[in-house]
Structures are given as structure tokens and as C-alpha cells.
Amino acid sequence: MADLRKRLPSNAPGEFYVDSTCIDCDTCRQLAPAVFAESAQYSYVHAQPRDADQSRAAVRALIACPVGSIGTVHHADAKSVMVDFPIPIEGPIYYCGFNSPKSYGGSSYFIRHPGGNWLIDSPRFVGHLVRRFEQMGGIRYIFLTHRDDVAEAAAYAHKFGSTRIIHREDLSAQPDAEYVLESADAVQMLPDFKIIPTPGHSPGHCVLLFAGRYLFTGDHLWWRADTRMLDAYRLYAWHSWTEQTASMERLLDERFEWVLPGHGKRVCLPAGAMHDQMLALVQRMRQ
Question: Which of 95, 150, 152, 195 has CA 20 to 30 A from 129's CA?
Fold first, then answer.
């Protein structure tokens, strides 16, 4: 729960605020960009909501915040907004919300599929999401992009009898996973699902390409709204920047229109424009 006594002085006066427990994970800025902005160390309220839609978006951010650092001066009706989660993105793709502090606020996603639903990385294990996933047909597979974002995957796997998928190089984060990827080769799990190892951020990092359109990128690749470019940071290549550059180059052979990251902003571009962005990024990384 946010603490009004810890309210950041940078917050705009009014109902919503961010307190000093913020970990600057970007969740609120993605969900309610009209309300929340980034400072040197924290997110803060740069403008109070101006209408009902902005207020609802701000409450969504309050719910999704992994550390409970968003608060309201008066009581917020979070229960009526909680029904929005998981939030549809496009077609069968949903953003789960309820980001976990165990993954530093990483985003997780849900794919509704007739061959069995997929969870991409893990949100907090909360009753609301469990009930919604039950209503949507359960979880057949849990794809874990890498060791940092497993969060509550074991709890979801136990609840739904799911098959957790992770690369052996990151297996220490989920040692009892049911399906272990063994090599550097791409794996066509099912007709719509292709797993591509992308070591760099971690030794076992992988991405998932769904339906030749949606690329779930974990901590490998994301969109920067300020520069309007795809990006990756050398600072976050915990394992190897050289390997991450080679992994990024490998993705030039793939066609996709969506980048759906664990950290950073998601984006949809025409496939040709996405390829051009990827090529430019690889060139910058090589330098």
C-alpha cells in the first residue's frame, strides 16, 4: 500500500500520487502515460487525470504496480477496475497486469489458443487472475523467457497442470520445469509457436514468435517511445553484449509485427518497417 507520508514532492497536486517506494519499473507509464512520467529515479504523477478514461487507466496502473507505490488521497474503487485484467492487446493476446516484484515489475502476457493457452513469463499469483484464466480455458504452457522473470510460474503451473518451458542455461531459476530447451537451435513447438534462443541478457534467454506476427522478447528487445526506435541496452546484458548482438542479428531472418517485451514498451509496426528497425538496431549494437 502506498503511504501518503512518503509521497514524492514531484507529484502534481491532486488525487493520485507515487511514493518513494517506487522502483521505476515503467509499468504505470505504460498503462497511463497521460498521468505518469519518469524522473531520474522514480515515476511520478506529472498530470492528474482529466477524464474518466484517464482515471481508469491510473487505477489500472495502481493495480498493476509491483510494489504498491501508487496511491490515492481518497478511496479508489480498484475492484471495479480489476475486471479489466487481463487487458486485451490484439486478437488472442492479453497483458496480464499484476506485475511481480520478483521480476522487477516485468510484464507478462497470455495467449488464448484453441490448442491450449500460453502464459508468457509470470505475473503475481492472485485470485482474480486465477479465476480469469480458469474462465478463459486454463494454462497449457508457461513460456519463461529467462531466469529473471519466472516470478510465480511454479504456482500457476501447479494450479493448472501447466508445462513450463525454459532453456537449460537458465534452468536454475525453475529447476523442476517440465520442458527444458537444450540447444541454441530454434524449436517449432507447435505450428503457431516458434522458440528462438537469444542469449545475451542471460545465457539461456529465449524469445517466442507466435503466428508469425507477435514476438515476445523478454529482456532482449523493446521499443523506446522517446526515440521511436527499437532498442537494447549494453548495461542490461548481464551475460554477454557480444552474444546479444549476435542474437539480435539472428532475428533479422524472422518476420513479425509486434514486439511484446517484459521490460520496456511494446510496439506494432508493419513487418517491413519492423525489419528496418531491427537492421538499424543491429548496426548500432555492432558499433
Answer: 195
Last residue of a domain, one of 74, 104, 132: 74
Tell which residue, 167, 245, 242, has the closest CA to residue 204: 167
Pairing of β 70-72 and β 16-18: antiparallel
* Structural domain boundaries, residue 10: 4-74
CA 198, 201, 202, 207 dihedral sign is: negative
Is 27 in a helix, a strand, or coil? helix
Whole-number Å distance between alpha carbons of 212 and 214: 6
Q: Integer distance in angstroms from the first to the last C-alpha of the chain?
A: 44
Give the pLDDT score at 235: 86
Kindly report, residue by residue over 59-91, the tens digit of the pLDDT.
Answer: 999 999 999 999 999 988 899 999 999 999 999
How far apart are the C-alpha atoms of 262 and 58, rounded to whole Å?
Answer: 20
Is 80 part of any domain?
no
The model's pTM: 0.95
Locate all alpha helices (DSSP H) within the chain, ordered by sequence: 27-31, 52-64, 78-82, 127-135, 153-160, 241-250, 271-286
